[in-house]
């Protein structure tokens, strides 16, 4: 059987492939699996008589443990950024004031922000009213009237 012939260099090649996969699917998932495969290869250098079943058990356990530990670390120590709303387009507009081009009727309307039309929810008001975006709910802005 081919699995019985697994050697340390097989695991190192698997590890390298997994680390290369991490370049195309970032998220530190394949990275830790690649490191686990490298560790199994290192263990095989020290203990070459290890059966393939134990090799896969060590690989699985080290992969899962390292991924869980890394995720917990990231949750406790989030990456700080100078642009926290970079990938949250709607959040970038919270706090800004705009003039309505269409009236708000029955609590629903539209507003043109830069080059995009956004759905808004707020108090009924007429065109030309200034509104301030207070928060977002998905692709809907919650607004309040600034002046009439």
In short:
This protein has helices at about 10-25, 30-45, 50-75, and strands at about 95-100, 110-115, 115-120, 130-135, 140-145.
Overview of the structural elements:
The structure is a single chain. The chain has a 5-stranded mixed sheet with strand order 1-4-5-3-2, with no helix packed on it. It is 40% helix and 21% strand. The chain is an alpha+beta fold. The longest helix is centred in the middle third of the chain and has 25 residues, at 52-76. It contains 3 helices and 5 strands. The chain has helices spanning 8-24, 30-46, 52-76, and strands spanning 97-99, 108-113, 116-121, 130-137, 140-147. The mean pLDDT is 87.
Sequence-ordered SSE layout with sheet pairings:
Blueprint: H1 8-24, H2 30-46, H3 52-76, E1 97-99, E2 108-113, E3 116-121, E4 130-137, E5 140-147
Parallel strand pairs: 3-5
Antiparallel strand pairs: 1-4, 2-3, 4-5
The Cα radius of gyration reads 27 Å
Helical content, roughly?
Answer: 25-40%
Strand tally: 5
Shape: rod-shaped
Class inferred from helices and paired strands: alpha+beta
- Residue stretches low in confidence (pLDDT < 50, at least 5 long) are none
> What's the arrangement of strands in the largest beta sheet?
1-4-5-3-2
Biggest sheet layout? 5 strands, mixed
Distance between the amino and carboxyl termini: 80 Å
Number of DSSP helices?
Answer: 3
The percent range for strand residues is 15-25%
Kindly state the mean pLDDT as a whole number? 87
């Amino acid at each position: 059987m081919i699995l019985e012939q697994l050697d340390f260099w097989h695991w190192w090649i698997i590890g390298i492939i997994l680390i290369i996969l991490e370049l195309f699917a970032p998220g530190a998932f394949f990275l830790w699996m690649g490191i686990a495969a490298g560790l199994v290869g290192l263990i095989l250098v020290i203990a070459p008589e290890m059966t393939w079943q134990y090799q896969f058990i060590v690989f699985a356990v080290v992969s899962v443990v390292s991924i869980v530990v890394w995720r917990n670390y990231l949750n406790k120590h989030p990456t700080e950024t100078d642009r926290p709303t970079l990938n949250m387009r709607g959040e970038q507009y919270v706090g800004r004031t705009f003039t309505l081009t269409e009236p708000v009727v029955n609590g629903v309307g539209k507003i043109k922000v830069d080059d995009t039309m956004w759905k808004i929810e707020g108090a009924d008001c007429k065109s030309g009213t200034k509104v301030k975006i207070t928060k977002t709910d998905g692709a809907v802005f919650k607004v309040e009237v600034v002046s009439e």
